[in-house]
Every structure is written in structure tokens, then in C-alpha cells.
Write a structure and sequence with these properties.
It is built from eight helices and 14 strands. The protein has a ten-stranded mixed sheet with strand order 2-4-5-6-8-10-11-12-13-14, with no helix packed on it.
């Protein structure tokens, strides 16, 4: 089993090069970037001497567990995509972490990120899930990321509902392509809570086949610049917003006419009650009589 340890770093040609007056221990203390991608690594050992580590590249390996990173309080970037990780864990001490790449693993539930208050980017695309399974995002984790997260990638994870993502009001880039999103109304509601959204990719979802799909999203997402890889022209957005406003105004006008219509369509009945002409002597005027009253139809001439 290949394990990432201090000894492995010492043997790496890409890292330690002995300099005059600099010991290996001193080198480890100054190390900020560690490149060990595509090395068939299965486990992370004790790296606590690398106390100033800020960027760690471990993608394209065979790692099954996130462990032994509690020392890396200065870590800002962690690249662990395309491994065999099944659970997000042991990251609570990485409170300066800004970018986390976990795409292409075997994660079923997104959790364990509650203490990462500075996390700006979270990449979770293409998890290798069991048939019929979908990626779930823990509501408490989402709430803890609400004030910091700007980029979220959840492409290709069988997701059919994103209502829990409503709390992520600082999102600027959102990718949820190749999922199973189908409700236009759900998307409109969620995106109306994201005032800073600039880029979005929803390609490959069933909802993309809905009538006026693109137009409706452009009117909801006021700051959106790119949708499914296509730039949004500001002139086109303004036209759609004006058209929607005109349509809603016309609908309100029609509703007002419907509310006041029935009574005004019978002028003779209106005059009887408004002008003050009394009913025929002996006739009992009641609400029921008014509802039953109908204009008399002209007699048809007999053939």
C-alpha cells in the first residue's frame, strides 16, 4: 500500500532538494505546496511537520479516507477529486480552507463542513453512486456555508430537488448539469433567492425542454450573465422583463373586469336599486329573487 508520509516526500525528486545549511526538517516547515497526484496513494500518514502547508494536491489516487490533516490549519486549497472517498470527515480544523475539490469520489451525503466558515468553492461533481442513489446535501451543512460559498458544482449526481440550496444566497457560479431537475417553478423559487448569481449551467436536465425555459430563468435571475454556456445580452433580458410586466398588468386588468362585470351587464336591474324605484306592489324583493331574475327572451314567431 502506498502511503503519503514524510519519507515519501524525502524520496520525491519534485520536492526536497538539499540546500547548503537547510536541513530536511527545516524544509518541511517552509513547505507550502505539496504535489502528490496520480501516485496510487491509498492513505495519508503523519505530515504534521508540514505546518505551513497551504495547498495539497492529492487528486487521481486511491485514497479511501480523509485523515491526518488536523495539523494543516493554514490549508486553503485541497484537491482530492477522483479517489475512493465515501465520506467527508476530519476537516473541522481546516478553518481557512477556501476551495475543496471532491468530485469523482463515492460520496452519498455532503456533510461535515460545518466549521469551514471561509469555504468559497465546493466541487462535488460525478460521484460514483449506487444505481438509483442520488447525492444528498445535509441542511445543517448548507446553512453553515450560506454566508461564504460562492461556487457550487454538483453536476451528474442524479439530483431531482434543490430546494434545500435556497439558503446559499452568496452563490455566484452554480453547476447542476446532467441531473434530473424537472420543476420549473422550483427553480424559479430557488434562484429568486440568489441575487449575486453570474453563471449557471443546467444543461442535460429534463427542465431544459420546458417551454420558455431560458426566458423564464433570465427574468428571475437579474444578475445572470451566462446560462448553459451562452452569454445573456442585457437588451434581451430587458425585453423579457418588460414583456413579463406587461403580461402581468394585462392579467390584473382582466381580473378587475371580471369582478365588476355581472351586475353592470343588467342596467335595468341596477337602475331599480340605485335610483330608488320600488318594487311592484305586493312583490317581495329578496336576494333570492334577484339571483333568479333573468332578462325575458323575445317570443319566437310561430311558423
Amino acid at each position: 500500500m502506498v502511503r503519503l508520509t514524510i519519507d515519501l516526500i524525502a524520496k520525491s525528486r519534485n520536492h526536497f532538494k538539499k540546500k547548503r545549511g537547510l536541513s530536511f526538517q527545516d524544509y518541511l516547515k517552509t513547505l507550502t505546496h505539496l504535489h502528490f497526484f496520480s501516485r496510487s496513494i491509498e492513505d495519508i500518514g503523519d505530515l504534521s511537520m508540514c505546518r505551513n502547508l497551504t495547498v495539497l494536491y492529492l487528486y487521481d489516487n486511491q485514497i479511501t479516507h480523509i485523515c491526518n490533516l488536523g495539523f494543516a490549519s493554514n490549508l486553503t486549497h485541497l484537491y482530492m477529486q477522483n479517489n475512493n472517498i465515501t465520506r467527508i470527515e476530519n476537516l473541522s480544523n481546516l478553518q481557512r480552507l477556501s476551495k475543496l475539490y471532491l468530485g469523482g469520489n463515492m460520496i452519498a451525503v455532503v456533510e461535515g463542513l460545518e466549521t469551514l466558515c471561509e469555504l468559497k468553492e465546493l466541487h462535488l461533481e460525478s460521484q460514483r453512486l449506487a444505481p438509483g442513489e442520488k447525492l444528498l446535501l445535509d441542511p445543517m451543512t448548507l446553512l453553515s456555508l450560506a454566508k461564504s460559498l460562492c461556487v457550487l458544482n454538483i453536476n451528474n449526481n442524479n439530483i431531482d430537488d434543490i430546494r434545500d440550496l435556497t439558503v446559499l444566497k452568496e452563490l455566484q457560479r452554480f453547476s447542476a448539469a446532467d441531473n434530473r431537475l424537472h420543476s420549473m417553478e422550483e427553480l424559479e423559487d430557488v434562484f429568486s433567492h440568489w441575487p449575486h448569481l453570474l453563471e449557471m449551467d443546467l444543461g442535460g436536465n429534463p427542465v431544459c425542454k420546458k417551454p420558455k425555459y431560458r426566458d423564464r430563468l433570465i427574468t428571475v435571475c437579474k444578475s445572470l450573465k451566462v446560462l448553459n454556456g451562452r452569454e445573456i445580452k442585457e437588451l434581451n433580458r430587458q425585453f423579457l422583463i418588460n414583456w413579463k410586466a406587461s403580461k402581468e398588468a394585462k392579467k390584473k386588468t382582466n381580473n378587475k373586469h371580471l369582478i365588476g362585470g355581472p351586475l353592470s351587464s343588467y342596467p335595468s336591474l341596477t337602475n331599480d336599486f340605485n335610483v330608488g324605484q320600488g318594487p311592484h306592489p305586493g312583490h317581495v324583493c329578496s336576494h333570492a329573487n334577484v339571483q333568479r331574475w333573468r332578462p325575458q327572451q323575445p317570443l319566437r314567431a310561430q311558423k
